[in-house]
Structure formats: C-alpha cells, structure tokens
Amino acid sequence: MKIAILDDYQDACRTLDCWTMLAGHNVTVFRDTLKDEDALVARLKDFEALVLIRERTRLTGAVLERLPKLRALSQTGKAGPHIDVAACGRLGIAVLEGSGSPYATAELTWGLVLASMRRIPQEVENLRKGGWQQTLGRGLRGRTLGIYGFGKIGLVVAGYGKAFGMRVQAWGREGSLERAKAAGCEAAASREALFSTSDVLTVHIRLAPETRGLVTAQDLALMKPDAVFVNTSRAELVAPGALAAGILAGRPGFAAVDVYEEEPVQGAAHPLLALGNAICTPHLGYVEKDGYELYFGAAFGNLAAFAKAPPAGKTGGA
Questions:
Q1: Which of 88, 95, 98 is nearest to 67 (CA)?
Q2: 283 classed as catalytic
Q3: Which of 90, 103, 285, 293 holds its CA 20 to 30 A away from the CA of 112?
Q4: What are 171-193's pLDDT values in tens digits?
C-alpha cells in the first residue's frame, strides 16, 4: 500500500521498533501540518492509507471526498472529532483505531506541577543569566490537589499527589466522583469549592461539544492568587482567552499548559508564552518513546492487517 504518515514533527516514526511492521509498503513521512484544505488534498490524493498522529490534522468530509484512492485511516489512539467518521462510512474508508496509555501524559502533568510550584524554569533561566535564587517556590506536602475529571489519567495523577503528601479532591460527573471516592480521594464540596480551595488544579476531561469552554473566566477567578492551573488535556476546555486574562488579573497565579487552540504554535504566537508565570510545553503529553511504541505499534499493526486482507473495494468505517 501507498501510506502517508502525517505530522511527525520530530521524524520519530522511523526510529521506533514498530517501524518494521510497515516493511514492504511504500511509506512517506510528512513532518509538517497543513491547514489549507487544497494543499492537504494535493499532498494526499495519491495515498491509499493515512496514519494519523492524534488530532494533528483535521480530515473533513470535504477533504475526504477529494481523496478517491484513500482506503483506510489508521489512528494512533482513538478517533476524535478531527475525523468526519460519517463521511468515512459513506465513502467506504475504513477507520482503524488503536489504544493508548495514561502514564506519559500523567507524568508530564506532574512534571509541570513540580516545575510550577518550585519555579524550576525561571530559576534555570536566572542561573544561566548569572543570577542566584531569585524566586521562592512552594512545596506540595500538605497542600490540596484538585482534579477536574477523574478518568484514567486523573487516577494516575491522584496517585502522584498522594505520594507527595497532598490532599486530593476531585470534581466531575457522577462517574468521576465515584471513581475518586473508590481511589480514596475526596469529592469536592462543589464545583466552586474545587476551584477556590485547590492549590494545584489539573483538568483531565475529553473534549466534546458539551465540554468545550467548560472552564470559564468565573471559575478561574475563584482560584487562589498563588494557585497553579494545569492543562494537559485540551485547550478548548477553557473559555477562549480566559486563562491568559486570569493570569494577568492575578487569579490563578500560575499556569502550566501543554495544549493550545491552534497547533502547532509557531513563532511563539500565543499570549501565554509572553507571561513569566506561565510554563508552556509543546504538547508533549503523549510524546515519549514508550508511548509512541504503543500508539504506533497499534496503528501500524492495524494497517498491516488491513493490507493483508483488504475488503473487496472500499468498506464502511470500522
């Protein structure tokens, strides 16, 4: 099959052990993201299959209709709103889903928590410039960790919080609260209490139409002036512009984010990057070797199996 792997910014796929699963196929790796639909169609029109790295490229029905040779999309992780799955079914394009792991994102989340609380990036930069001990960080023991959305990642993050001696409280739907209690964590007294009493508040919620803009400016205004708001899930969970405005207004006092409304962010063109009390990473949550082996191993394996026993003509979405 003629296969394209999209948006491999680091040219990492070819370094993975699972790369051998695509042996015998004609594979092209693209390292950039195209937003223009005409340019995207021109790039992809001759490919029979695409490997998608999470939600980096959006494939609308209008784009898919202009890719007549396309037979399969192999998604790293689960397919999301970036794929018009209904159009795939209509056009007979198979959608092959893989699996993922909560650990890489949970670890990155905790790295951001520690970096924010102890002002690690600021002190590293101060030292490079000849300074010495110019900030006063805070420890985690005895403080309150708030987790909004208690799924697989939230559960792992809660374990890290407990290991550091934090009080852990959660908020979310009924299922989230039940899982939190089963894990030995507290349910916050209310949504307002979650925001107002947490020293560190981290969000772990799937993006869906009903969760877009879930965290409002009013929520952030309830936070302590020395609290840290962490987002390694999706930027769109927060109302547009609310986090940068909240930081400038002094509540919360700090932000640590790994996700942005438009990715990749080029030329430092995001308001949070101009703020000294915001730590920003380039969507590294799931981007690490073990996680990539898991994600791409599943995506490549699914595609290799599809190629060995392709249906007669195009089929509906799988």
A1: 88
A2: yes
A3: 293
A4: 999 999 999 999 999 999 999 99
